[in-house]
Amino acid sequence: MASWIQIYPTSSIFLLVGQTMQLSVRDYNNPSTILNTSADGTEYHDFNSSIATIVNGKVTAIAVGETIGRVRHTDGVNITDGLVRVMVKENINEIWIGNNQATIRSGADNYVLTVYAKFTDNSFGDISSHPFLNWSSNDSTKISVDGEGRIKGEGSTGDSANITVSFGAASSTIIARVSDAFQKERPILDRVYGSGDFKDKMNILFLGEGFSTIADRSLFDHVVTGVVDNLFNSPNQVPYNVLRDDFNVWVAFESSSESGVTPSMPVQSKGFPVPSFTGSCTPNPNYNFQQLVQFVGLPDSASPNSINEAKLAWKSIPGFDEDLLTNNVFRQWNSQRIIGYMQAKDSLLGFKMGVRWGERNHSRDTSLSVKNWYIPGPVRRTSPDRRRLFSDWNYFRPLNEYIKSLRVPGLAAGDPNFDIHSTWLSGGNDESLVCILVNDDIRGGTNYGRIATSIGKSKRYIINFNGNLIDHVPSINDKQTFIGAISSTIAHEFAHSFDLGDEYEGYDDPSHHGIDIANISQTKKIDRFINLTHFGKVQDSTGIKIVGTKIPWNWPRIEKLSVIKNQIQKIGVDGVKVKLRDSSTANSWGVLPAGTEVFLRHKDINQHNNSSTYFQLGPLTIDSVSGEDVILKGGQPSNVSQLPAKSQLFIPLKDLTGNILSVIDPAIITHLNSTGLPFARKKNCARCDRANGVPDSGISNFNYPRFRTETIGLYEGGGTYNCRVYRPSGTGRMRTMGSLITLIGTLPVLHYVPIFIPLQKDIEFSFVDKYVIVNSVNPEKLPLINLYYPM
To answer: From the Swiss-Prot or TrEMBL record, what is one GO molecular function term (predicted)?
Structure first.
């Protein structure tokens, strides 16, 4: 049994009457485990048995039509639903391979060819890996192909073969070529920023994907240069500028065989992926696009063409309220008529844009309509293509195999940087700092453990036609790249690598109205992020109000900090010994005034993570310094075993009266304790609202910062949940992408009486997010970010 499932080879099935297809319900984390039967915890629900039946994963087509059902799996704790659509057709008119070409590495099999069909009703479908297709190679000693269309490089670099697929009288052929094996060393690593031994720094690696021409290489270099400069020098990328000396930046460029990456979703006539929509997060009572689709699906040739026709046709649908359907949403829905599927791209690393309908993420929300099938996932998700995985379906293996081959040219085996590739492999220190720059028109970015971001700015493709074939070539040049926007996307995605979560709401579906604090799988997702919390962690004893003193990010601001080299040792009754980096660092503590209060804390500052080992000890005073050792006295040092190597010795920042300054102003804590309510509280949890949060007015003894939305506190909405999940700031880089934002600010006018007006400023990380990033990279620089505290 599994906590999450995936359905292979696809959950989008096209069959003719009488045909069958065997599906595999697999453990998401261990795809070799098949879970097809009730004994495995899997059942099949809601399929229309007059159209198709499904038993133990075997689908049988009964009659022409469409049916969508659920593959429901339980592991005894969690229930996961996977939606499967079966389209039964009369016959197929044409088929064609959806790849213009294919390049497979010698000895590798990580390439499943795409096949599209046009049916007798003039509709189109993706029939890749369907069992009724027949595959052949004209030279299987060079490139072989199996029954699912998976090719393998049997020969050597430069070999080629014709690969053919057929069904009845219809057939299609492409040329496939063999390229260098993954194992061949590639001396193409180049450091473009930083210096020194890679083990002493954090190392960013930029890879190119979908760049094929000389002009493409120039574009890649232009983007890397601009992003590095922006990331480490732009004032709205704080704290990366503070940490600029703690990073190296490396690039490895290799051309793709084709420009661009694979578009996963079908398209409509203007080149927009289907579905593509706006207004998914709108605080109004009418239907938005997603809600309408959950009632009626997407349009086809038989669908209504006007809002009046639609209201008449849909009024009998249970729960549908025609008064909530607006012209704008109907027009948006009506524009989603599919004209076909785009050709897959023969790119170097095998990435795609968007989510294929048949490769959707599955849901723990068992109440969702089966029509949710038509909203498979983010249009702008940039990630590895499942059809470019090895036959073991390991999601990370292809990129790991490629990274293993990267070398710095001219370095001998004894050089400190010879094995730098190891730092970017799964489990390496810098695996999450790999950034794949994708040459694609549609703007998008994803952190899937590594970062992939496109360099385009569009919402649609510029498409061209050749019969049924729909193709595109990226149209980006140096002047069309928005370096600031790309840099902001990368800065945001890198921040996920430091355990920062998204601070926005995002969905109007029931599963994201509000977190269920009794659902461990939901709360764990929030607990792992340092900048998010939920009601279960901050509630009072009555379970009704929030408690300000329970907010997990109210750490002390830092005046001075040093990282401890080894496990802290207890000395005597009230003493501890800490070893610092070197004697010079230790001496900087020895010269402090007598009686200076210092503290010790664990490096992990995620206080509410269930697995956290957060611990703080103090106040203590410095007794003596000898070499690298500092002896501290006072407090209760019996728990020093909870302070391992890399714990922190620090002095908290204090105000003029000697009070410790924390991340949250004490007046905010007092106010939240009094009201028991978060800032920006949602009036209707069924509607998400991405407006910037504003703290309450009239908070006693609190000096509001110029931009009120930057006030650190507890704001409702985050982690894509509308209610009962909380974030630290009204706005910030983890909530809002882009470069400029209008915030509520103050200007001194009329004899310096402040009035509140809209002002524009660059979007920055919130102070909490800055604190977390610096603490993760180089906590000794935490004093430097006090300059950026909201004032």
So the answer is: metallopeptidase activity
